[in-house]
Design brief:
By secondary structure, this protein is α/β, with parallel strands linked by helices. 39% of the residues lie in helices and 19% in strands. It has a five-stranded parallel β-sheet with strand order 8-7-9-10-11. A four-stranded mixed β-sheet has the order 3-4-6-5, sandwiched between helices. A two-stranded antiparallel ribbon has the order 1-2. α6 packs parallel to α11. It is globular and about 65 Å long.
Length: 257
């Protein structure tokens, strides 16, 4: 249930063009819908999420059985609006695409989605930077998520601190973006560099890319948490989705400024 559809439903009842019983039928699965495998409840979908947050519930495919996952996706696709499924393994992506041809794939981000194109922001811009090519998967997950939340998104990949001229070549993007997502592994220095160049929020995303002493992204995480740039805030390791979601909300809250 989207805010637009809920408002239209209320207006129809108010104007007398829709009877109360029919309206109740349309709200039968609002604000929650149970997904069952025989008698077992495998999920309780939050159908009120779009009304509260401006975006429907997102599915984390990781850890879910095929049976549960495909049932959840089927219920989501039965309703209008955007759908986002993250952390989908290659095998499950292929099976879901075969069963649900309306879905699109962002292979590097390990995501499947259906996009509601009418929700694109008229202003504002989310810029997504990655330090290295190895960080692109997480960066693309962030970019896709922000775009599905209605943001205009531009990317600048492979711009790490080992060659700062690669970052400085994005001067126009650094000057005009409203929110920055900066994805980096290894020592995680890039968010601090960008934070020192811009006067906008910088969302730092540590990745698990790096050699042994990076400890699967912990080194980058700690470096970002200890950033001396006051406009830098940090999400969890490899959490491109979380960064993209928050960036989309910040961009939306910025209005036309």
């Amino acid at each position: 249930m989207t805010p637009h559809r809920l408002r239209s439903l209320i207006e129809e009842v108010y104007q007398g063009t829709l009877d109360v019983d029919t309206a109740m039928q349309r709200l039968a699965r609002f604000p929650m819908e149970e997904v069952r495998d025989h008698e077992q409840v495998v999920a309780r979908l939050d159908t009120h999420r779009h009304v509260r947050h401006g975006f429907p519930e997102v599915v984390l495919a990781q850890g879910k059985s095929w049976q549960s996952l495909q049932q959840i996706v089927a219920h989501l696709l039965a309703r209008p609006g955007s759908v986002l499924i993250t952390r989908v393994s290659k095998k499950k992506r292929h099976r879901l695409l075969e069963r649900f041809p309306d879905l699109k794939e962002e292979r590097h981000a390990r995501c499947l989605y259906r996009e509601e194109t009418s929700n694109v922001a008229a202003s504002g811009l989310v810029a997504v930077f990655s330090a290295g090519t190895a960080d692109m998967g997480v960066a693309m997950e962030a970019a896709l998520t922000a775009r599905l939340l209605g943001a205009r998104v531009m990317t600048h990949f492979d711009s790490g601190v080992a060659g700062l001229h690669r970052l400085l070549s994005a001067g126009d993007l650094l000057a005009k973006a409203r929110v920055f997502i900066v994805v980096a592994g290894m020592e995680g220095a890039l968010p601090s560099v960008i934070g020192g160049l811009v006067d906008k929020p910088v969302i730092a995303v540590p990745t698990s890319q790096g050699y042994g002493a990076s400890f699967g992204g912990v080194s980058a995480l700690l470096g970002m948490l200890n950033s001396c740039a006051a406009n830098v805030t940090t999400v969890n390791i490899d959490n491109g989705f979380g960064a993209g979601y928050v960036a989309g909300l910040i961009n939306r809250a910025g209005g036309d400024s």
